[in-house]
Amino acid sequence: STRLQTVPSALSTTEPLSERDAVTGYNNFYEFGTDKADPARNAHKMEVRPWTVRVEGLVGKPRRFDIDELLRLAPLEERIYRLRCVEGWSMVVPWVGFPLAALLKEVEPLGSAKYVEFVTHYDPKIMIRDVLDWPYTEGLRLDEALHPLTLLAVGVYGEALPKQNGAPLRLVVPWKYGFKSAKSIVTIRLTEKEPATAWNKFAPQEYGFYSNVNPEVRHPRWSQATERRIGELRKRPTQMFNGYAEQVASLYQGMDLKKFY
Amino acid sequence: MNLSLRSPSAGTIVAFKAIVFALCLLPAVNLALGWQANALGANPIETITRASGEWTLRLLLITLAVTPLRRFSGLHWLLRLRRMLGLFAFAYALGHFAIYLWLDQFFDWNAIALDILDRPFITVGFAAFVLLIPLAATSNSFAIRRLGGRRWQSLHRSVYAIAIFAVVHFWWLVKADIGRPLLYASILAVLLGLRGWWRELERRRQLSVPPPAKHLEKKVIRLVPRQ
């Protein structure tokens, strides 16, 4: 595939990148199978052109965007982010994308909008039927969605996203566990009420709406205090908000993060 | 070489044992070679942890399948493979536990203690492993003689609980896709169900026969044929 024109970002980490094979071959994309190698094997069945994204709900100008339109919406940046999975592993990924805020600005959110819901592509002909309640949905509070770190990614490693990574367009929220970063998005809806999210519906005691990376709030079945960086043998301590506390801690001031996990 | 399947010669049995031994060793060899060749995927520690755990479970189920297979087929010599199969199940469990202690936790005893006490799936997996130890330790003729057949047998019945714990350990570990744990649970249910059913048949049979003669009353009646 072709190289994407990108500009570097001051928000990137300087940590060494995870290997490309790991980034594109070790994935959670349950629609294509629950083994980490399944998405890379099966996602080729998904058609990602043409692709439109509807942005609707509590906005002044609801619109459908063609994916090629979205690629020209804002300058594409390379954002090197840490990715922390709720399962206890992590990577460093060079995403290509633009801030979600740039898209939301286009549709003019109404004052009543408090949350953003993301609905992802679901095609039962090529995807798994059971496991979760499809389509996979995710959600953010509007201020989280507008945060400069929150990215709509269209590429990785300087090229268009491979399908197993959520082509053609996915969310990346680096201070939250990886499952919050919904893949292959088809609808973005602004709402007044907190949207239902796929993993929260499946096991509310295990996956909260916020799901901020937090070493002090353990998952009921495993610790979140440490993580294994893919490619390394020894585990390392997990950082509060995955190391983005300086930028995002203020979003949660006064909130009990044990309660709003 | 005696090729009769029903009563093979000692040599045939030894050859058969050697084949089963090699087959049981194969997954471990495969993992070791994969580790060497860096061919176990992006997260090799996860791969070997999962594989050693799943092979423990499979070998436990295979061990528990020996008796039903023997009863249905009439191939009583199959019993002579059971000890080896059970010991391999223990060996894979030991490997699984060692990988967890060393590669996963790097002997962080605090984290390990917290895991065992606080995380039900680890508690139940740890219990299964601990319960396997006395079975492995008494899996020799000397221990059978010392304990006496009956005590040895009742000790080794804990393998049923161990197998249940092992399946629960796997079930509680998975996030959403219970397909594999469900498969193992179903196989275990059949293996245990058969035993329950046989017990019931035996109970009914004993009820239907006249009470034993007075002089036999306090004597042990052997229900299991001698090896």
Automatic annotation (TrEMBL), chain B:
InterPro entries (alphabetical): Fe3_Rdtase_TM_dom, MsrQ-like
Span of domain Ferric oxidoreductase: 53-167
Transmembrane segments: 12-35, 55-72, 84-103, 123-143, 155-172, 178-198
Cofactor(s) in the UniProt record: FMN; heme b
An annotated Gene Ontology molecular function: metal ion binding
Pfam families, sorted: Ferric_reduct (PF01794)
UniProt keyword Flavoprotein, yes or no: yes
Biological function: Part of the MsrPQ system that repairs oxidized periplasmic proteins containing methionine sulfoxide residues (Met-O), using respiratory chain electrons. Thus protects these proteins from oxidative-stress damage caused by reactive species of oxygen and chlorine generated by the host defense mechanisms. MsrPQ is essential for the maintenance of envelope integrity under bleach stress, rescuing a wide series of structurally unrelated periplasmic proteins from methionine oxidation.
Subunit structure of this chain's protein: Heterodimer of a catalytic subunit (MsrP) and a heme-binding subunit (MsrQ).
Record family assignment: Belongs to the MsrQ family.
Name recorded for this polypeptide: Protein-methionine-sulfoxide reductase heme-binding subunit MsrQ
Species of provenance: Thauera aminoaromatica S2
Record lineage: Bacteria, Pseudomonadati, Pseudomonadota, Betaproteobacteria, Rhodocyclales
Underlying gene: msrQ
